[in-house]
Design a protein that fits this description.
Elements (H helix, E strand, L loop, with lengths): L1 E8 L2 H17 L5 E4 L3 E2 L14 H7 L2 H10 L8 E2 L5 H9 L3 E4 L4 H7 L5 H19 L5 E2 L8 H8 L5 E2 L9 E4 L2 E2 L3 E2 L7 H4 L10 H8 L5 E7 L2 H5 L1 H13 L3 E3 L1 H9 L7 E8 L6 E9 L5
Parallel strand pairs: 1-2, 1-11, 1-12, 2-5, 6-7, 7-10, 8-13
Antiparallel strand pairs: 3-4, 8-9, 13-14
């Protein structure tokens, strides 16, 4: 069973606490992972406005006990309290993660802005946000990023066409079944998309009658023997309050002989035979437990990128 671990780090606290805990634990067990880190200001306080725009947001916040996970400093960051810069504040931490062998890549500049607006952005608007994140990344690592993970799985033609000029190895911006080349107006783009295939724990905790001790059991049911499973975890969830459940699931996976896959190595491998990778369109869809809609892979079209 093949499983790739993708870790989204959305907030200042996510780097300082959860992200560092996950990096230390995974390094000790020699498990590869890709960390996608928001690099601009932590403006998480503005997420509260989703309560009026996204059905199910209030329920999710209550079911997941969001205040205890994020803390009051994060809840008011960017509104009642000034936003704290994430990338600039944790240069040495992010460099250390990379030195441990993890992939560290951008998760946008302003997480809230990307999450709430990016699916409808023009190429020019998306390029502005990407350029800001890339500039910070270059200051930290002295090189350009090779991948990108969109906040909230929000992607569209504008964001993906903008990413083409950055010549990424891959991006992981959607939910779907397997890797593909995004297609728009009958033409496939050249940058590989590797979608998240499994439900996330913050979504599952919003399901009716779901309890924390059931998370690993339900995640196990989603694993598919016949494809690459991509599991996205959040530093703020699995790295903090739900770290014990995360450890238990990792130990169960290892006991069953899971084959851990490192996303950049996987991307390089399948790109050697680009003709075998399908093209696919995306569209907005609702997922159980997630407020609002996310960008999801649609039917595959075997007219792939050259």
């Amino acid at each position: 069973m093949r499983l790739a671990l993708k870790i989204d780090v959305d907030t200042y606290r996510g780097v300082a606490d959860g992200g560092d805990r996950l990096a230390t634990y995974l390094h000790e067990r020699d498990i590869p992972a890709s960390f996608f880190v928001t690099l601009g200001p932590d403006a998480s306080g503005w997420a509260a406005t989703r309560m009026f725009r996204h059905r199910g947001f209030a329920k999710k916040m209550t079911r997941t006990n969001a205040i205890s996970i994020y803390g009051w400093r994060t809840v008011f960051s960017g509104t009642l309290l000034p936003p704290r810069p994430i990338g600039a504040s944790f240069k040495k931490t992010l460099q250390r993660w990379a030195a441990l062998g993890f992939e560290v890549s951008p998760h946008g500049f302003n997480h809230i802005r990307w999450h709430d607006q990016a699916a409808g952005w023009t190429v020019e608007r998306a390029q502005e946000e990407l350029s800001r994140a890339t500039a910070i990344y270059q200051k930290i690592f002295g090189r350009l990023p090779e991948s990108f993970g969109a906040p909230g799985w929000q992607a569209g033609e504008g964001t993906w066409r903008a990413m083409e000029s950055h010549h990424l190895l891959y991006h992981s911006d959607s939910r779907g079944q397997r890797p593909f080349f995004p297609q728009f107006n009958g033409s496939a783009l050249k940058t590989l998309e590797i979608p998240t295939t499994m439900a996330t724990w913050d979504e599952m905790l919003a399901w009716d009658r779901m309890e924390p001790d059931q998370l690993s059991v339900e995640s196990w049911k989603q694993l598919d023997q016949n494809r690459l499973n991509v599991w996205t975890v959040h530093a703020e969830f699995e790295g903090q309050r739900y770290f014990p459940q995360f450890k238990n699931f990792i130990e169960r996976l290892e006991a069953k002989g899971v084959d851990w896959i490192f996303l950049p190595e996987f991307a390089k491998m399948i790109l050697r035979n680009r003709k075998d990778v399908p093209a696919a369109m995306i569209g907005p869809a609702e997922l159980p437990g997630r407020a609002g809609r996310v960008s999801c892979q649609k039917a595959e079209l075997w007219t792939n990128a050259s």
